[in-house]
Amino acid sequence: SSACGLPAVKQRFRPHVGIAYSNRDTPAEPIIQRVTALRDLPPAEVSVTDLRLVRLYRDGRTYQWDTVAVVSLSA
User: Fold this and answer.
1) What are phi and psi of 47, to 5 degrees?
2) What is the predicted pLDDT for the residue at 55?
3) Structural contact between residues 70 and 1, judged by C-beta atoms closer than 8 angstroms
4) Collapsing DSSP states into helix, strand and coil, what is residue 53?
């Protein structure tokens, strides 16, 4: 399929989302080993209908976000 009228291109790039937070010092090696093992999982197919630019901020002890802009990818 295509987005915005451009032809789909197969790439080696693997889109991903990574979120991590630690409020204390901890050895990195055990975390690196666990995340490395996740690379062997099969890819998941998803449909993306829009892109959103968000403003991430911290309010007290929680993270929150506001949507700043939305770009629709559907026809």
Assistant:
1) -105, 130
2) 92
3) no
4) strand
Distance CA 26, CA 38 (A): 20
Confidence tier at 47 by pLDDT (50, 70, 90) = confident
pLDDT single digits (tens) 11-39: 565 566 666 677 889 898 998 898 898 88
* Residue matched to tokens 């998941």: 44
Q: Rounded to whole angstroms, how far apart are CA atoms 58 and 61?
A: 7
What residues are paired with 65 via a beta bridge?
56
Residues β-bridged to residue 73: none
What separation in angstroms does the CA of 73 have from each of 2, 14, 15, 70?
9, 19, 16, 10
